[in-house]
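Reviewers of the previous submission asked for a worked example of the structure-prediction workflow described in the proposal, so we include one complete record here. The input consisted solely of the amino acid sequence. No template or homolog information was supplied to the procedure at any stage.
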Amino acid sequence: MTNGRVWVTGAGGLIGSALVRTAATAGRKNVVGLTRQVLNLTDRAAVQQRFEQERPVLVFHCAALSKTPACTADPALARKLNVEVTTFLAELASDIPLFFLSTDLVFDGKEGNYVETAAVNPLSIYAETKVEAEAGVRKNSRHTIVRTSLNGGTSPTGDRGFNEELRQAWREGKTLRLFTDEFRSPIAAQLTADVLWQLAEAEQPGLYHLAGGRRMSRWEIGTLLAARWPELKPGIEPGSLKDYQGAPRPPDTSLDCRKLEGLLHIKLPGLPQWLEEHPAEVF
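From that input alone, the workflow returned the following structure tokens.
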């Protein structure tokens, strides 16, 4: 498989661009990063023509409408981009491995530390489209679903990672209220990409959770990054979901990644450990 062409959709996003950047280290020399400018994934004829011409041996499908407000504002577009595009790609790639990037938000957050077999219960349009897309991908035993959590790092547009959003807000002089009782499993996109390449090499398709090894509240994440960027004079204050008046938010979508760790014989670090080990990384 290492000599064949690899497609990475969403190459203009955080995880997709990280996959392209880390390809050479993973021993992959023929990687095609597909951005919106390169290929409109909603143009089925164009996608099919390019697929038949290039004949990839592996597809990482990272493209999505991933911002919850955007999905809520236009559910039809969310379904088109997140479900219909995914389903069509999965059909085209019926004879090769396809990796679909899903989310911890498929869970309602009432329990936390979710394993792969836990029941899903999405609370947002975005999460609903991911659950529907998962169902389509799961039909093919060659294909793999990878649920991940908050990813941070450096994206081509500078606004895809949670860390980039925080940094921009602080540059604008904003004080952020961050929940002390909403939990995720944050991870560096570079690590996500490295592990995805390892998972592809393992050739064990299925459903996996891939996230940071430490459950952290939004407040803990903000405090960690504020200490990394003192020059921004970051302003944060603690808040609570109990006082939140907006659309439903799952309180704890932390993920149990032991299935993946056992397969690859690795231990996924928490975000504080990863940042400590990568002091020079732009994050």
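The first strand starts at residue 6 and ends at 9. We consider this example representative of the routine output the project will generate in years two and three.
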